[in-house]
Design goal:
binds NADP nicotinamide-adenine-dinucleotide phosphate, alpha/beta, Rossmann fold, 6-stranded parallel beta sheet, 203 residues, single chain, 6 helices
Length: 203
């Protein structure tokens, strides 16, 4: 398969790249990528990325493990702060589906990334939780309208083991998710037949 991983240098993304690179051709995209630069908060940048990729043939799978949202107490979040998550993690991923689907082969898949905050938010996460929940609803709805048997899913995991030291204090009592367990979600979406599914990996 030819697989694009947006955010492929991140904590989650690099594990995805490592896993699929064993048997597949993997293209790694991100803001600082030399070969496949993209900022998902910028629609023009997404269009440019897929235009470039299309020249060398369509993709079998697109995985997005990128997107930001501002974390702060609700009383301190301005409307502009909320727009960070709306533009990056929410509309960024919606636009990856909207624009990226045209660069997908028949039966290709798109896998987005959210997180446990959609179902089990913690303090300071009104923006991130809201955005994650929005993507879950989007995925279920857009799967009904995909053409050529293309599929869209989202992997929603708890705090992953590789990021646990960084986030542990924000998630009291949340068990870290082993990286191989997290990977099962992406494999299930890319290699399985599921469609419109929120693949939850919370314990
Ligand atoms: N870490 C966790 O425990 C965890 C658990 C569940 C869900 N998540 C979610 O999973 C996603 C990835 O998390 P992570 O911990 O792997 O983050 P990370 O380590 O900060 O990595 C983020 C990756 O995405 C790229 N990126 C960031 N913003 C981008 C943008 N606007 N356009 C294109 N690429 C962008 C980064 O590369 P460049 O800087 O080069 O762009 C990097 O490759 C996030 O949405 C996060 O909320 C994380």
């Amino acid at each position: 398969m030819k697989i694009l991983v947006i955010g492929g240098t991140g904590t989650i993304g690099k594990r995805i790249v490592e896993h699929f690179s064993k048997d597949h051709q993997v293209l790694v995209a991100g803001r600082s990528s030399k070969d496949y630069p993209v900022d998902i908060a910028d629609t023009r940048s997404i269009k440019k990325l897929f235009k470039k990729i299309k020249k060398s043939g369509k993709l079998d799978a697109i995985i997005c493990a990128a997107g930001e949202a501002k974390w702060a107490p609700f009383k301190d979040l301005s409307e502009t702060d909320f727009h960070i998550g709306l533009r990056s993690k929410l509309m960024g991923q919606v636009n990856v589906v909207r624009i990226g689907q045209k660069c997908l082969k028949r039966k290709g898949s798109i896998t987005l990334t959210t997180g446990i905050l959609a179902d089990d938010p913690v303090y300071r996460t009104t923006s991130a939780a809201m955005v994650n929940g929005g993507i879950h609803s989007f995925v279920q709805a857009v799967a009904l309208e995909m053409e050529d048997e293309k599929r869209v899913n989202v992997v929603s995991s708890g705090v992953v083991m590789d990021a646990y030291a960084k986030y542990e204090s924000y998630f009291p009592g949340h068990p870290p998710i082993p990286m191989d367990k997290m990977m099962h979600g992406y494999v299930r979406s890319v290699c399985g037949r599921v469609n419109g599914e929120v693949i939850r990996i919370y314990s």
